[in-house]
Amino acid sequence: MTVLASVSLATFLVAGLAATQFRSQPLPPSNRLARDEALRKSVNQLEDQNRVLKARVQTQQADVKAGEDESARRSSAAQEVKAQLDEQKTFAGLTALHGPGLTVLLHDGTDPNSSVDHSLGWTIHYQDLQDIVNVLWASGAEAIAVNGQRIVPSTAFHYAGVNILVNDASRLSGPYTVIALGDPPALANGVGNPDQLAELKSRNRIYGLGLSWLRSTRLSVAAYDATFLVKYAQPIS
Prior knowledge:
Elements: H1 2-24, H2 32-74, H3 76-91, E1 97-107, H4 126-138, E2 143-146, E3 149-151, E4 157-160, E5 163-166, E6 170-172, E7 176-181, H5 184-192, H6 198-207, E8 210-221
Antiparallel strand pairs: 1-7, 1-8, 2-3, 2-7, 4-5, 5-6
């Protein structure tokens, strides 16, 4: 505000000086061309001075902004807010992650070609992926991806023809690779627990449906790249 007030005062003083100059050196009424030329030169001079002053104001504003940015960067409060934001982005799946974990592999089994078997039990259903993801979450998984698609709290699985729709955008087809980051023994124990995924494991024995898992010391999951669909929530104005 001080800088802008200074610019306004300077412009006013320059304009007043020009007006005084015209009054002290009047031109003959008959010499209109000379009067117009003198006025044009004075206006040009004022515009040039205005441009210089504006440039100074812009420079000072940029200096102030740079100082504010530097102060915010060094502020412990700003650093704490940034850390909290980064943590929330990680929880929301917006950050790519890597670490130890478990890889679960699934693929369709063998069609028995039986006229009395209409269960399609030899194929991987979207419910199977849901069940595996839920078991992994319950076993301490910190991040999960299915065929490269990051799974977040709002993720839903649906049928999309012969494919499976994930995150309301990506169509997945078998075979399926589920990657979970976390403690490998805990994740493996969760998937291998006889009380978990019992129906899927039964189909594995009957139809040869593929279900296996492998511990790893280093795995990676990509960041969530779909949209967060909010149907009913509205921001507070």
